[in-house]
């Protein structure tokens, strides 16, 4: 009997040991499974971050943009960015070498995409890629570049760069000023001159850029250039367009002066401004919105430069387009690109808050798409 009890105890101990050993192996197997799953998640996250598509919204994706984003993501760009609250293109928040870093330019494009997705701003941020837009885009086939013209932000100099790249002249200094805007002689074809299939191919594959500046300061520049100084070769601004605006928008009929900035603002802020725009034709390009000029929510641009930081942006654009060894952007006079708050305040000092708010309502898409903020003294 004692021998049987001993055998039974020995069997029980062996069973307990086997069960314990089996459970140990199960825990090891379970831990191994968890480790494999964890490593798979880490690998997936790495792949997602490395190949994250920066142009998920809108137009077809492009290898050029993906290459630039891959470099930025490898530099550990944070997924959640709070830069828009601090970024003020009208100031000097970014200077020197920092602006040469792709991160700044990728953040500009990210802001653009986010605003394009905002359904509340859709009417102010979206437009059809019409012939009007295609007429604004100049083509350099030799180097696969598209440049959308946004008047009053230094576009003459960029045209000179493209004229040289297209081979019409060997250097910028050789280009006569009379040739730059003569599209019959400057060797700069417009995108609208191509067939639909050729247009689509270039929009999908070429390096594309344009330049913006503070929207209100741009309007002041347009007003001064076209209605105050009024170049001799553009008499229609003073003799045709100005009288039409005065007849419709001047409040003091006893006033006999030429077009005043107040008249100009009232015209631009009128929700029914388009009936005059149609009469003025393409001359409105000097004050029409960036949205209407370049369709930034419909066309996937590679870089968006800012006039306020052009000293840094111009070299970056040339390098990003792969042409920095072929041509240089003309020297920028000191202070020419700096946002002039005093000038803006002086021009708007006699404008009613109601008219300023109506003007902002029209250009709100431009302000938000490109990170500009209306100075407090204009709206408060």
Brief digest:
This protein is mainly α. It has helices at 2-50, 63-74, 102-117, 122-125, 131-136, 155-165, 177-180, 196-205, 215-229, 236-249, 261-269, 274-280, 290-294, 310-320, 341-348, 353-369, 376-379; strands at residues 137-140, 145-148, 207-212, 303-306.
What does this structure look like?
- This protein is mostly helical.
- A hairpin with a 4-residue loop joins strand 1 and strand 2 (145-148).
- Strands 1-2-3-4 form a four-stranded mixed beta sheet, with helices on both faces.
- It has helices at 2-50, 63-74, 102-117, 122-125, 131-136, 155-165, 177-180, 196-205, 215-229, 236-249, 261-269, 274-280, 290-294, 310-320, 341-348, 353-369, 376-379, and strands at 137-140, 145-148, 207-212, 303-306.
How many helices does DSSP assign?
17
Helix content: 40-55%
Identify the overall geometry.
globular
Order of helices and strands: HHHHHEEHHHEHHHHHEHHHH
Unreliable segments of 5+ consecutive residues: 1-5, 14-20, 42-99
Strand content: under 5%
Mean pLDDT: 79
Helix and strand content put the structural class at mainly alpha
Walk across the major sheet and give the strand order. 1-2-3-4
**Rg calc:** 30 Å
Largest sheet: 4 strands, mixed
Q: How many angstroms does the end-to-end distance come to?
A: 103 Å
GO molecular function, one term: sulfotransferase activity
Keywords: Carbohydrate metabolism, Glycoprotein, Golgi apparatus, Membrane, Signal-anchor, Transferase, Transmembrane, Transmembrane helix
Protein name: Carbohydrate sulfotransferase
Family: Belongs to the sulfotransferase 2 family.
């Amino acid at each position: 009997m004692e021998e049987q009890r001993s055998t039974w105890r020995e069997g029980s101990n062996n069973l307990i040991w086997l069960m314990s050993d089996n459970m140990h192996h199960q825990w090891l197997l379970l831990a191994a499974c968890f480790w494999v799953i964890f490593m798979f998640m880490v690998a997936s996250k790495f792949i997602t971050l490395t190949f994250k598509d920066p142009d998920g919204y809108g137009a077809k994706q492009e290898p050029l943009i993906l290459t630039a984003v891959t470099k930025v993501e490898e530099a550990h760009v944070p997924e959640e960015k709070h830069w828009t609250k601090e970024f003020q293109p009208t100031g000097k928040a970014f200077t020197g070498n920092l602006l040469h870093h792709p991160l700044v330019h990728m953040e500009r494009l990210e802001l653009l995409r986010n605003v394009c997705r905002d359904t509340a701003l859709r009417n102010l941020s979206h437009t059809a890629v019409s012939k009007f837009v295609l007429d604004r885009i100049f083509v350099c086939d030799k180097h696969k570049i598209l440049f959308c013209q946004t008047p009053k932000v230094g576009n003459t100099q960029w045209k000179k760069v493209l004229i040289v790249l297209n081979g019409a002249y060997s250097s910028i200094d050789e280009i006569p000023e009379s040739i730059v805007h003569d599209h019959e002689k400057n060797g700069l074809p417009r995108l609208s001159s191509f067939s639909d299939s050729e247009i689509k191919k270039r929009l999908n594959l070429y390096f594309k850029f344009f330049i913006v500046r503070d929207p209100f300061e741009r309007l002041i520049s347009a007003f001064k250039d076209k209605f105050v100084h009024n170049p001799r070769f553009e008499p229609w601004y003073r003799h045709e367009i100005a009288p039409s605006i005065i007849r419709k928008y001047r409040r003091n009929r006893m006033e006999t002066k030429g077009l005043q900035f107040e008249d100009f603002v009232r015209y631009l802020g009128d929700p029914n401004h388009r009936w005059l725009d149609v009469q003025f034709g393409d001359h409105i390009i000097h004050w029409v919105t960036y949205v209407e000029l370049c369709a930034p929510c419909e066309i996937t641009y590679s870089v968006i430069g800012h006039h306020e930081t052009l000293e840094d942006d111009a070299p970056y654009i040339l390098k990003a387009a792969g042409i920095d060894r072929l041509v240089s952007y003309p020297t920028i006079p000191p202070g020419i690109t700096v946002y002039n708050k005093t000038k803006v305040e002086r021009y708007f000092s006699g404008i009613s808050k109601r008219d300023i708010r109506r003007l902002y309502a029209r250009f709100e898409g431009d302000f938000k798409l490109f990170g500009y903020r209306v100075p407090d003294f204009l709206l408060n």
